[in-house]
What does this fold into?
Amino acid sequence: MSASGTYVCLCNAVGFELTGEPALACYCHCNTCRVYGGAPARVGAYSPEQFKLTKGSANLISYESGPGKIRNSCKTCGSMIYHILPNGLAVPPLGGVKWASDGVPVVPTMHIWYGDKGLEEANDDFIKYDGFPAGFA
It folds into this structure.
């Protein structure tokens, strides 16, 4: 079974679809994710073929939070929609995805940017990378 799901922002102006297994599914502890959402972000990294914006492209605002890393949010409600990494992968939030009933939800298997975590500790057995896993970015 493959994971697939849909997402719409809080105001219902922007939406996307996901299909297939992501290149990685993780908790991101980078400073930008923690400042943006108040906690580590639960995200997946998908190829452009797996991520499809279904509505609201004109309602996106973009911000380059690092060299080649673009964060896209809804300009009406402020919801995180997706990021684009320098390697071209789309990184949407997993928490708001409505997963298809015939598939398996995507859940994190690791922590990234754990070196940026501040005082928060993760109490699980997932591998913890100080940045991206080797060979990923």
Q: What stands out?
A: The mean pLDDT is 92.
